[in-house]
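Weekly modeling sync, notes
Attendees: AB, CL, MP (scribe)

Item 1: holo prediction request
CL wants a bound-state model with ribose-5-phosphate before deciding which constructs to order. AB pointed out that an apo prediction alone won't tell us much about the pocket. Agreed to run with the ligand included and paste results into these notes for async review.

Input as submitted:
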Amino acid sequence: MDWGMKNRLSKIIKPKDGRTVMLAVDHGYFMGPTTGLDHFTDMVNPLIPHADTLMLTRGALRNWVDPNTDVPIVLRVSGGTSILNDDMLHEGQVCSIEDAIRLNVSGVAWSILVGAKYERDTVLGFTEVIDQCEEYGIPMIAVTAVGKDMVRDARYMALASRMAAELGAHIVKTYFVDGFEKVVDSCPVPIVIAGGKKQPEADALKMAHAAIEAGAIGVDMGRNIFQSESPVAMIQAVNAVVHDNHTPQEAFELFNKLKTQ
Ligand code: R5P
């Protein structure tokens, strides 16, 4: 692995403990003005100091993020379908790697739809972009997207995650499921979990903790942070689980304390 690739990976995964809290705020690329992100800067600016990495789209970055920021950026480069489309997540490349480099990103993200009708398109698009990324030392985060009708279990997540890694992903983002150790153990690259739909804060913290216990290196969490009753308190509680080994109970107590401040 070359120096540039290693250096960019060290911006995403913190060398002090090998873990990361990625804040996912890319939802607008297929969901439009998602609850919580309808006024992007009001929500995201107070969260940035607590995020190790910001995952978002080219448009959000250019329009709403101060270029003086020092938060590392992971840029979503796949897209093309909306939540209204039956073929949602049948995605292609929506941003060139040259533009990603111009935007000084630390990594890019791409969704693969394993087991669905358009699996081949999303997977071949993914490997094509990885070849472009390798040329410039840009890490690729594979998002193992799940279609509406697909089962979320350890067997499926292990298959999708292992495929992503064998095809060249540097980090895999997947969903937490029962038996998550199987997913982590069979994947040769670091794994982060997506948050998924909003749950009560205590449950989201339990999930993050269980993922770390099973061997994930962190989270790439969106709605469970920005749709929380107190997003700034929630991202700090998630940080406490990921970086400070808080138990879910300790982290929830921290959340309750911080939300009143
Ligand atoms: C979906 O593919 C998007 O990339 C989101 O960033 C991802 O789902 C993580 O966000 P959430 O924690 O809200 O699921």
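Recorded for review: The first strand starts at residue 20 and ends at 24.
Action items: CL to compare against the apo run; MP to circulate these notes.
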